[in-house]
Structures are given as C-alpha cells and as structure tokens.
Amino acid sequence: MRVLHGVWAGDALMVWGEAPPGEVRTAGRGEHPFALDTGALRSLLGSLGAGRAPSAEAGEVVLTLPGDGGAPAHSLRADHCPARLDPWRVPALRLDAPRADALLAALAAPAEGEVRIGPALAHLRAVHGFAERLVDAGCVLPDLVGDPPRARWRPAPVDEAADHLSALTDALPAAARAHLPGTGAQEWARTCVLAPAELLTDAVARRRTRPGSGEGDGPAHRLAAALTGTGSRVDEGTAAALREPLRRWRSRVRGAGRARLSLVLREPEGGTPWAVEFWVDSTADPGLRLPLEQVWLGEGAAWLPADVGTTALADLRRAARHYPALRRALSDLAPARLLLDTAGAEAFVARAAPALSAAGFPVVLPQWAGGDGLSLRMTVEEAPARRRGGVSASDLVHVSFQALVRGVEGGPLSEEELDELAELARLKRSLVRVRGRWMEIDPGRVESALEALRRHGRRRAGVGEAVRTAIGVAGTAPLPVTDVVAQGAVGALLEGGSGAELRPMGTPPGFEGALRPYQDRGASWLRFLGELGLGAVLADDMGLGKTVQLLALLADERSASPSPGPTLLVCPVSLVGNWVREAERFTPGLRVHVQHGPDRPTGNALARLVGGCDLVVTTYGVVVRDREQMAALPWHRVVCDEAQALKNSTTRQARAVRSLPAAARIALTGTPVENNLGELWSVMDFANPGMLGSAEGFQRSIAHRAESGDEAATGLVRRLTRPFVLRRVKTDRSVIADLPEKLEMRAWCTLTPEQASLYKAVADHTAERMAEADEKERKGLVLAAMARLKQICNHPAQFLGDGSALAGRSGKLDRLEAILASAAAEGDKALCFTQYTSFGERLAPYLRSRLGVPVLWLHGGTPRAEREELTRRFQEAPGPVVFLLSLKAAGTGLNLTAANHVVHVDRWWNPAVEDQATDRAFRIGQRRDVQVRKLVCVGTVEERVDEMIERKRALADGAVADGEQWLAGLSVADLREVVRLAPEAVAG
Length: 988
What we know:
There is one protein chain. By secondary structure, the chain is of the alpha/beta class. It folds into 5 domains: 2-208, no CATH class; 258-364, no CATH class; 374-492, no CATH class; 529-726, Rossmann fold (3-Layer(aba) Sandwich); 744-985, P-loop containing nucleotide triphosphate hydrolases (Rossmann fold). It contains 35 helices and 31 strands. The chain has a 7-stranded parallel sheet. Strands 26-31-30-27-29-28 form a 6-stranded parallel sheet, with helices on both faces. A 5-stranded mixed sheet has the order 3-4-2-1-5. Helix 19 links the parallel strand 21 and strand 22 (615-619). The longest helix has 24 residues, at 185-208.
C-alpha cells in the first residue's frame, strides 16, 4: 500500500509519496527511508490520471515528522507512539496551480489500486472542492494582484466563503504544516489554506471559462484575455484603468457589509397575478428588510448604502443568469416585481427558486411550498369479536381513509372537492387552490392516490398492518397519514400510546431490592406494551440488568393479579442456573420450575406442574425437542433471553420458539443486530408477528437500502421499531453514571519469519486455485483460506497441528505474554478470549508456566457446575489471575467484574460477539476502568477484515453482512487484498 502526500509551499503543491513500510530504500543521513523517488512518483501520478502532473519539476522538501530518532514513523503504522519530531528530506514534485488543479480533480474520485491519500493531501483536496463550489456558484470576482500586475480570479468576499475557510483552517492536520516548523497558527492558515484556496480558485475558473473572442482592445478586453488565456500579465495602463473599478466591485459584493437582494413569491389576491417581489436585506441584521419599490420612491432607511439601487440592479442581472425570466423586469426603469401566471409560479417554485438559492440569493416562498399539501385521516374500528386482554398484531380491524388539506380547517375533502382536485392533477397542475388556499401537490402522485382512495374504501386489515400504515411505512398508504381516529387499546397504540407517559413501577411487592431509575423505566415500558398485548424487544447493553427488569415485571403483575398465568423463559443452557439464582435473590416468592434434563416432566405431569408455576425456565434445545408439548400449554407470556439465537428465522430453533402461543412476548438481547437487518426482522417477528411484514418484503423495501447506506431507509427502520425496541448503552451517562470507562485499543503484532513463510505459502496457493475455480468453488476456497490464515496468525503450531513447542515462534503469542505479564505485575486480573478451543487447550498450560499466576480455562465442554466454580474462583481470588475462555462458550451469561483487562487473542468477524464477551467485565458492579485489547497481526487478513468491519459498524452497532459468509462475496480485487502478505507483517 503506497501513500500519496502533499503540502502547499509558496505558490505550488509539493507532492511526495511513501512506499509500504517493508520497502525501505537506501537513504543518506536525514533522507526519508520510505519516500518514493521522483521516478516512481511520476509513474504513480500518471496512473492516477493526473494530466500534466507527471511532467512537473522535481525538487525536495524538508518535513518535520514523528519518529524515534532512527527513522520516521510510517503513516500506515499510526498505532505507534513516536517519541520525538525530526526533520527529514523527501523527494517531491513541484506542481504549480494548474497542475495541482488537475491532480486534485483526479483525486476527487476514489483512487484505483493500492494507493492511500495522506491527511495533508486529503485536506488540500477539500480546499480544492471549496474552490470548485465557489466557481460553480459564481462566487468569484476578477482582480489585479502583484507587481508587475497579474489578472486573477479570487473568491468573492461573502460570509459563506469566510465561514468555509475558517472551518478548513480549524481542520488543518499536523501533516499539512510539517514543512513550516516553528511558525504560528496565523502563518499556517495563510500558507496552508488561504494561499491554496485563492490559487486553486483561479486555476479552476480558468479551466472552466472560454478564451476571449479576440475582438476589441480596451482595458476590459485585455483583462478578460488575461483571465481566460494562458498568460495572466496585464500592462500598467490596463491596471491603472481598472484597479479602482475592481475595488468598488468587490466592495459592493461585500455590500460595504450592508445590503443584498432577495426575492419573495406572493400569492394572487383579489384577481391580481402571482408576483416575485424584489427586496433588499441587511447583511448585518437579517431582520432589516425593505421592498425595492420603496427604494425607488426614495423611502430608504439609514442602514441602506448610498449605492443600494446600483447594487440591486447588478444583483438582478446576476440573478437573471439563473432565472432568465427576470430579464423582463430589468427592462423596467425601476424594477420592483416580476408578474407571473400560475404556470410561471409553478416553474419558479419547482426550478428557479432552488437554482437562485444555490447561487446565494435568498428566496422566500409561501409556507405551503416544498411538500404535498394533501394527507390522510385514518379511521380504525375494532372488530366486535376481538379477543380480550390487549391487542395482537394479527387481530383484524376495519380501516378507512379520508383526504385532508394540511393547514385547512373544515374536515376531510368532499366528493366534489376530490373530483375537482383529480381534474387539476390530470392537467398536471402542481399549484392548486382548495377552500380558498393555495397549495403544492405532485400531480402524478395525487391522481393515483385519489383513485386508490375511491377503490379501497373501508377494508379489513390486521393490527400489524394498521400500525405500519399509521407510522408511515412506504407503500402502505397512498398519501402520508397525519391523523388517526381509533378507540380502545388499538387507539391507545395508534394515536400515540406507544409514546405516552409510563406509570413508574417503583419497587413492586415481592421484589427484593431497588430498581435503578432506568430499570424502573424499562420495566414500566414492558408492562405498558404487555397491557396492550404487544411484544417488546429489551435490547439493553449486556450488564444493565435485563434479568432484573423482567423479574420486576413478573412481581408487579402478580401483585395485581394472583394468577395471570405462567411465563415461559427460553435461554441458552449456560444461563439456566443464573436465572434460577437471580429469581431466588430478587423474587423469592415466585414459583419457579426448570424444564431441562433427561428426567424433565412431560404430558399431563408437565401441564399440572406448569399450571401451578409463575416462571418456567427452559432451553432452546428443549423447545425444539418438545415443540408440540410446549405449544399445547397455556402460556401467558413467552420470553427469549439472548434472543439473537433467533436471528436466522429459518432455523428449527427459531421456528419452534415462534410456534409457542402466548398473549405477549418479550425478547431480551444485548445485540438486536449482529450482522444485518434481517436479524432485527427475525427478533421483531418473534415479539410481534407480522409487524414488519414478510422477511422478503422487509429486505427488499427497507433493509437492502439501509444496509447500502441510505439514511432515509435507516431512519425508517428506527421509526418502525422505536415503539417496540428499547436499547440503552452503558456508555450513556444519562442512563448510568457510576460505571467507569471502557478503553478499547488494537495491539498490533508482527509475524515471525516462520509465520510469514507459512502465510505466504497459503496465500499464494489460494490465489492460484482461485484463478482456476468457478464461482461456487471460489467461495469455499476463500472461507477455507480465511480459517488457515487466522490459525497461522495465532501460531504455526495451531496451523500445523503437530503438537510442537510454542515458545519463540509467534509474534502474537509474544505480545499476549507481555500484556498479561504487565497486568499480573500490577496485581490485576485479565480475561482472554479465543475462538479456537484446540488453541486454548495448549495456551492455558503454556501461560501458566510462563506467567507464574493461576490460568483458568473455560470452553464449551466445561460442565455447568465446573463453569460456576471457575467463575467463583476468579471473582474471589485475592491476587492476579488470568481467565482464558472460549469466545462462543463464554460470550454470554457470565459476570466477571473482577477483571479490568480484556484481551481478544484472535479477531472474530462479528464485532457484536466481541462486545458481548467484553461485557463479561464491563457491566454493573465494575469499579475500575476496563482496558480492552484486540490482537491484530499487521498486514494480514486480520488487519484487512478489521478495516472492513470498521467501515460497516455504522449499521446498527457494528453489523456486517451475514457473519463470515460476506467474505465469500468479495470481488477478486478484494480477495487479493485480503489474502496477500504485506511486507510490514514480518518483523526483522
């Protein structure tokens, strides 16, 4: 991976480049050892399509860079903490402003190949983008600079430009001023922001303007030729004639800080036509405004400059470039307004107003502009046969719609009004008058919507569909729903009940202990939705007490009704004991039964037992095996703990749990989305069947767009699920203020020569086989290669499986030892997670012998009793202890707050799984800051996948596509990048 850098020096861009860290060139004293020579740099610029840049003059620049004295720190190794700053000489190419314009324009699109843009050059790319936007908006003015005089395009002195330049100055990275040691912030801003902004604005404007016609020989003609041709020099006579007019021009644009033109659209009144009125506004105080008509009548104000009329006419002429109809008004001696018919007003609202606003002219439109004026009133009537006890998403209701005009009283539109509106829509009219008020509509949308209203009339629908329609899911209603009329429990939900104030629960009778404020709110929310017969997804972070909130709910409802019916709790087998202990501790009066083990009751015995219980705890495996028996019992509520177990809706486990009938359902999970939004659909469909439609429809209409970065689709997902999903995170101080900090970091490791040799052999062999494989075979090859490369990154002995010695053969193992030894020396306890049980079996005795402290080992085969004993020993041990754990077996259900160090030995592709494991230590009860280290071998598949995961974290707390399967869908170029061995992976 090569890195392209650049700094602005004087009147030119100095470009230099870095080779990968492993490609160290022979360098003299003070020469940068990683810098590309000018030949390689020319080739690189040529490959980027930078026009004339490769022919630039060769030079050298001295940069003050971080390092350790012996060598500068490579920019790709930003994890290092350099101890000092030293000057280094780097070969560079000097690009004047036109060449710099060509290069930065080429870099506006993502660079092809293995090239990364350094922070200083990325900042200059932003300065160049600012220059392009100025030219596009016409915010540039001609000027004369220097001696001898030269013509130059310069940014216009407007507030927006000054604000943008200030923001660019604030964002200036240290690398952009590395050639200016010892100077202050003012010099940095002038050299690194103001100078390139001005010179690049001139270069962009010249590139986008046509050369002069060649006719005429006056000063203005000579200035135009100098502004558009290859030469910028002007003679002294031209300069003398134009300096003062150009100065006055810039002063007027600055408005002497006082006035500017704005345009106001007025509706017809009393038979008058539409009108665009011209006003002048104070730039210093937006509240000072005056119609231009009064200026012509001499009714000015003290804040107006003397030349306001001249300035207003100049602004009108500039505005006419973006809205040619204004030329009609310019023919008047004292233009005050432009009269329009309805078609002209429609064109002004739809096209001219956005163009004028983009060019910097304030435009004031009526309040109704910018959105459809029509909406719907939705009426929902409960079916008489609806069952007692709340609302089910599958219950049927009667739904009907009526059209409303936003902001207009008088109720829904009548049939006659609908007919008139439909006729206007057929004529493609976008501005229409209804009940004496103008409004804007989309003709095509309104015409089809009105036809749909008449066609559908009153119909039956499920409560789930009604909810989706009421909250605005795309495609469920022909127009936006702005009013809902409903009664009873359905009305409480649809008319805003999901956002109603919750009744505080306090400390329910029979509950031993006190709920934290956020736990009280969570339990109250569960009770509220339960009273409506709706399911809930309690998605609090691990360690915030989801168990306590559910137990408080059970205690509260049993204080109101002695026998509401049994609650079935389904959880992983590792959590059965935890639920029993927590129930005994917080709700000792609950009648609890554990339905697990070979001797568990069945048939009538189970039915009689369940009838006398408040809480039945079972496992996902038991539900699958005893599906018919469990589904035949009268459950009041079904609760799924660690509900991410349902994320794949097609598994036997998910289908079995979903088949259990209940009046209400609750999903408990710290990770409602681990990989993609299909998992959220699956969890939601357990809690509220049908609420999000079918899996295919949800994926097609919403999830696919959200996962592709569509912010509107992401917002729609939040809107759809907000009433039913409650998520709080431990880092939110408004939720919980007494938790310490969680400090996450990557611990970079290098491969030993043995590891590097094995890695390269596997990568090369995989690349050869992929070149010959078809699509189906390629996916299998990639997944197999990923597993082998990850094992090599851990240790050669794990990959070889030969039982050979561990010491001295793995850079990662050396780094792990150092981290754990440091923690033990401080008397601290540490958790170490690995996804490989076979590696953990060898690692535990090795660390025991090397560290001289107890090293405990827990994996999927550890019996439940031994698991609990290991947990107790770790929590109660007086000195340092290392707890080595299998990631999948120990990622949930353990409270290990005695640890304040967490180490992830090998990376898991899904960050949510790592976060769950980390939360064994970072949870309520932790009193010290928790340090979390993720061991990553630099330059290997671990680093590449880490980068890919970071790019995907924006989707629902770090979701990536379908676990490890998304790796198989990479392009050939991506695969080559993932499996290649970077030179920096090898340590000395």
